UniProtKB/TrEMBL annotation:
Pfam families: GatB_N, GatB_Yqey. NCBIfam families: gatB, PRK05477.1-2, PRK05477.1-3, PRK05477.1-4. Heterotrimer of A, B and C subunits. One of its GO terms (molecular function) is asparaginyl-tRNA synthase (glutamine-hydrolyzing) activity. This is Aspartyl/glutamyl-tRNA(Asn/Gln) amidotransferase subunit B. Belongs to the GatB/GatE family. GatB subfamily. It comes from Bifidobacterium pullorum subsp. gallinarum. It catalyses: L-aspartyl-tRNA(Asn) + L-glutamine + ATP + H2O = L-asparaginyl-tRNA(Asn) + L-glutamate + ADP + phosphate + 2 H(+); L-glutamyl-tRNA(Gln) + L-glutamine + ATP + H2O = L-glutaminyl-tRNA(Gln) + L-glutamate + ADP + phosphate + H(+).
Amino acid sequence: MAEKLMKYADAVKQFDPVIGLETHVELSTNTKLFCPAHVEFGGDPNTQLTPVSLGLPGSLPVLNEAAVDYAIKLGLALHCEIAEWSQFSRKNYFYPDMPRNYQISQYDKPTNGNGYLDVELDDGTIFRVPIERAHIEDDAGKNTHVGGADGRIEGADHSLVDYNRAGVPLIEIVTKPIEGVGDRGPEIAGAYMRTLRDIVRALNISHARMEQGNMRADVNVSLRRNPTDPFGTRSETKNVNSFRGIEKTIQYEIRRQAAILNDGGEVLQETRHWDEASQTTAGGRVKSDADDYRYFPDPDLVMLHITKEHIERLAAQMPEMPRERRNRLQGEWGFSDLEMRDVVNADALDLIEATVASGASAAGAKKWWLGELSREANAKGVSLEELPVTPADVAEVEKLIADGKLNDKLAKQTVSGVLAGEGTPAEVVAKHGYQVVSDDGALVAAVEEAMAANPDVVEKLKAGNMKPMGAIIGAVMKATRGQADAKAVNKIVMERLHA
């Protein structure tokens, strides 16, 4: 049965939304958090295991130093206070895909706390998101439900468990309640997640591929009548793994909760799940509080001591942060604020930078990635970086255009060939014989034939009306199978007109 929803505009007029995000970032270490099992996405099920990641009796965890350094770097980027002493605790809960049946996490003594992240919205507004903590923990495995629809547990007759992911190091970034969002809650959450993704990539601590589960968020939403009122009862939508899904989750929950409160009902504190197909959330279990997890310090792990000197060494290694990088590149490329915003929103910044580094102009790189290639990605439902074309390929096509060997039409055909797996741009050009007609004699002959076939157009051109020039150029293009240089054709026509 469909849930009652209030119109979004009405909901944010009547209620003050408060949101919160708990973001899990999977670290790109070579091995797991507490054992030497290899970490690799897409490996055969249950092949990346040790006695520790299987939770076998007598196995003891040993902390991964690289994971701690990654956490400290992220803490610095999020303006957090780095604790000199932090502690790992056992979080007790029935995890069907966690073999030891508890998670090792940080509870009351996290490594990073009390930070913030400034995010830029589409109109240039800067919104500060307060960070409660960014703590270290290990991940659970993965359940695959068999027999139901779309891999869901509903209707499944059995489930398979893959423990490869069990023990993979995570950082969980927990915001404080984000207040004052008004009607921009979904936009703020999306901007926050994109900024966070850019930061962990800049730090080179995570691939942050949401479609692979490297980065996912639990989305908390509550409503209250006035900003001065206590927080309302929140829902927590678990493991949303797309920017659009996070934005849509917040919008849906605001509409759902507003309808309940407007009818005099009470919002249930529960976990929920986002259904991409129906664009709705669905109720799960009643939400547990911290006491229910029976946290206690893990007796197999000593407290983590992080010295001031160690923090200073890591701080000296910090790379350029995304906002500073964007400002620098915008200046180097000469893009307007709107152009740069389009690049960022298209998730094309890295690709354009790599294309420029391969020899293309910034304008040429932007034209391809935000034009032809963006349309191709949208049509296939994939990200730009998933397309089978590299920045070097795009730069090579741009060079062929600059050298006069390809025109725009042939360039598009060449890129289509690359996308189809026919090889590099040079190989596609050679295979299909794509080449601008550069033989002056052949081009002159084609132009003269086109002019002879269109005497009325020629008369208009002689009279100074240049609008019909396209008819001559089109005829030449047809005669040369699209391989003529339009500028050269235009030049020859003008020479013939004034001969």
